[in-house]
Amino acid sequence: MQIPAPFDYARATTVNDALALLERHPDSRVVAGGHSLLPMMKLRLARPEWLIDINDLYELDFILREGDYLRVGAMTRHTTLLESPEIARLFPIITDAERVIADPIVRNRGTIGGSLCQADPAEDLSTCCVVLRAEAVIRGPGGERTVSMSEFHRGPYETAVAQNEILVEVRFPILPRSGSAYEKVERRVGDWAVVAAGAAVSLAEDGTIDDVAIGLTAAGIDRTITEAEAVLHGKKPTEGLFIEAGRIAAAASDPIADQRGPVDYKRHLADELTRRVLRHACARALEVRHTTTQEG
Amino acid sequence: MQISMTVNGEDITREIEPRVLLVHFIRDVLRLTGTHWGCDTSNCGTCVVLMDGLPVKSCTVLAAMADGHAITTVEGLATGAKLDPVQQGFMEEHGLQCGFCTPGMMLTARALLDRNPHPDDGEIREAISGQMCRCTGYATIVRSVKWAAEHPAAQETTGEEVTA
Ligand SMILES: Cc1cc2nc3c(=O)[nH]c(=O)nc-3n(C[C@H](O)[C@H](O)[C@H](O)COP(=O)(O)OP(=O)(O)OC[C@H]3O[C@@H](n4cnc5c(N)ncnc54)[C@H](O)[C@@H]3O)c2cc1C
Ligand code: FES
Ligand code: FES
């Protein structure tokens, strides 16, 4: 029977209350969906003295459009993201990813905030946030600060969020004529990725690629793959370019052999999945471009 | 610490240690052993209960986190002698063999039908995709949920059949 070691429990009623509790108890940790933290506590990989439950912070459960940004609260559950029509329209990469993150029951509990703060190298939403050039809003005793995803990620299981801080929201910039896509290969439904790829593109008025970001999950690389992006910049999307980008992404990846597969297989997936998500993201960007032209 | 919640419509209050998981609270403290406990790692889904109407894996929720919420276990599906259509469906379509996965499967089915009264096979399979059945091969479970969708009015049965 797996049971966590003893701890004290407090339920926060507001973000400020949670911050005060974190400050008062130096060996404390917040629990959101608990679907990463509780398994780690059962295995004694985490042993906080205090758990601060932030599930009552409904103020952090929102998806709001504000100008050129979509703001997503840290307590937004996977299921809410999956079912949001606004997310599907603006950032289909997130909808693609949510379909294959864990299973529907885990998705009822797990949150975007917990996923990003867990910073598991095989975690899917981190890749989505990186390629969408999202920003993380962190609140602490001194107020709020906003960091880019590259500042947010400090390495496996490590983020810019300090012990006395809370991730409160993730902000996604909304770009015109843009499309995005995610694809993951998993051994069975609900499993973590063997490898997954995500891409986001935005097109210039003339249909050439204005901005592009490519990311890989579980492939030993947590930044966007600028080398592969460079071959696409300023060009009209073509199959030949996707193949070239896939080859470069695979070469840039640095996967490890484990029970999910050997290195060459994972490199092959990085190549093939990069092509697929680029193809898909560009097709979606073109669709958006056509519908906006028709509307306007 | 003291926690209070509604379990199958009944208000309960108990004194617990914060580290007690909801599945053990339900089975060992409340003695409602219909909720099963299997993998302990949120993979098998036999521990599924409804929390405010949504299926959750109770091996990965603290009892303390359920404080103030409404929990439904398999014991709460029937109303007196009246089986829930989902229970009746599992009987009609042989949705179980050993029965280990059944409580979780039925609760997920109930939550699905509450939101989507006429799911197709794909939607049913997706809904139960976080739960394992080592006996049936899932086909009869899908048929059982379909049966329940087609017979939304609960069936009258004798008390004997409910406890059997
Ligand atoms: C069976 C299973 C399969 C899974 N499969 C996948 C998968 O395929 N892909 C995938 O990406 N994920 C998967 N997950 C992980 C799942 O997405 C989790 O929900 C997620 O990693 C953690 O979210 P949570 O809300 O449960 O976080 P918690 O477990 O509550 O917290 C995780 C960590 O983040 C910290 N934290 C949480 N919220 C905040 C906040 N707002 N501010 C600061 N710190 C915070 C906690 O202190 C803790 O350290 C799976 C999980 C399970 C159990
Ligand atoms: S015991 Fe909870 S999912 Fe297996
Ligand atoms: S009936 Fe035996 S595990 Fe499903």
From TrEMBL, chain A:
A GO term, aspect molecular function: FAD binding
Protein name per the record: Carbon-monoxide dehydrogenase medium subunit
Keywords noted in UniProt: FAD, Flavoprotein, Oxidoreductase
InterPro entries reported for this sequence: CO_DH_flav_C, CO_DH_flav_C_dom_sf, Diverse_Substr_Oxidored, FAD-bd_PCMH, FAD-bd_PCMH-like_sf, FAD-bd_PCMH_sub1, FAD-bd_PCMH_sub2, Mopterin_DH_FAD-bd
PROSITE patterns in UniProt: FAD_PCMH (PS51387)
Domain of life: Bacteria
Source organism: Cryobacterium psychrotolerans
UniProtKB/TrEMBL annotation, chain B:
A molecular-function term among this protein's GO annotations: oxidoreductase activity
Gene3D superfamilies for the chain: 3.10.20.30, [2Fe-2S]-binding domain
Pathway stated in the Swiss-Prot or TrEMBL entry: Alkaloid degradation; nicotine degradation
Organism superkingdom: Bacteria
PROSITE patterns found in the cross-reference section: 2FE2S_FER_2
Keywords carried by this UniProt record: 2Fe-2S, Iron, Iron-sulfur, Metal-binding, Oxidoreductase
Pfam family for this entry, one: Fer2
SUPFAM superfamilies: 2Fe-2S ferredoxin-like, CO dehydrogenase ISP C-domain like
Protein name: Carbon-monoxide dehydrogenase small subunit
Organism: Cryobacterium psychrotolerans
